[in-house]
């Protein structure tokens, strides 16, 4: 189902009217219209494409999935692709929702590739900034980008919390190494995906703010600057988290190696201590005469040697922190 809105002189005049009436509203130069389509086909976009003069390549990208975040400029409009994201804190899995948008002087057409994109939140942001409606299409684009970038920022913040918990778990007394490895690899995979969605948004927002684009007026410029600041912070945060995940993984492997070395030292030390009585009793077990053979003092001599040598080895290993 298509959603529609029309603003006249910066005032919301009508919404949820049939998409076929767009051409009637566009005849008035004082109007700005918004059309939202969910999972449309090329045939669904044919009428809108003819009405707004959309480029054939942009229409193909709008119905194709897994486009990279970008802003393409054509003679009559611009074409935007971006992703809203959400991190599942329970599993560490990143879920993305692709959106395409056609931007003209007096119209914004949003194309949602799936129903996970919360267009209602975008509408609420428009309604909460009705003092900016006189800025035309730029006002609609600002609300859309503000929501998308906020999802990036929220996902980065949630991922930072997850990585901080992972970092604390590395130094825990009892560590589930298998679970920690699985969790760290899942977070790393999500972080790589998030980075692919966040980093290109710097160029997208920067291009929209350019004067020759004629989209952002003086009233909107501070708001777009704020969105751009959030994009930069999310990008820098993403880069730092990638380095942090790598460091945590290296630290985990290093600690595992250290724990293994400690275990090997203890096992080796106890093996050396046990080797003393084994060697002495083995010697006295020979079926040949030896000093103290058949005499009680021979037994006590061997026992004393075992106790003294074992105690000496234990004290030596203990001083060297091998036990």
From TrEMBL:
<protein>
    <recommendedName>
        <fullName>Magnesium transport protein CorA</fullName>
    </recommendedName>
</protein>
<keyword id="KW-0812">Transmembrane</keyword>
<comment type="function">
    <text>Mediates influx of magnesium ions.</text>
</comment>
<keyword id="KW-1003">Cell membrane</keyword>
<keyword id="KW-0406">Ion transport</keyword>
<keyword id="KW-0813">Transport</keyword>
<dbReference type="Pfam" id="PF01544">
    <property type="entry name" value="CorA"/>
</dbReference>
<dbReference type="InterPro" id="IPR002523">
    <property type="entry name" value="MgTranspt_CorA/ZnTranspt_ZntB"/>
</dbReference>
<feature type="transmembrane region" description="Helical">
    <location>
        <begin position="297"/>
        <end position="317"/>
    </location>
</feature>
<dbReference type="InterPro" id="IPR004488">
    <property type="entry name" value="Mg/Co-transport_prot_CorA"/>
</dbReference>
<comment type="similarity">
    <text>Belongs to the CorA metal ion transporter (MIT) (TC 1.A.35) family.</text>
</comment>
<feature type="transmembrane region" description="Helical">
    <location>
        <begin position="267"/>
        <end position="285"/>
    </location>
</feature>
<keyword id="KW-1133">Transmembrane helix</keyword>
<dbReference type="InterPro" id="IPR045863">
    <property type="entry name" value="CorA_TM1_TM2"/>
</dbReference>
<keyword id="KW-0460">Magnesium</keyword>
<keyword id="KW-0472">Membrane</keyword>
<dbReference type="InterPro" id="IPR045861">
    <property type="entry name" value="CorA_cytoplasmic_dom"/>
</dbReference>
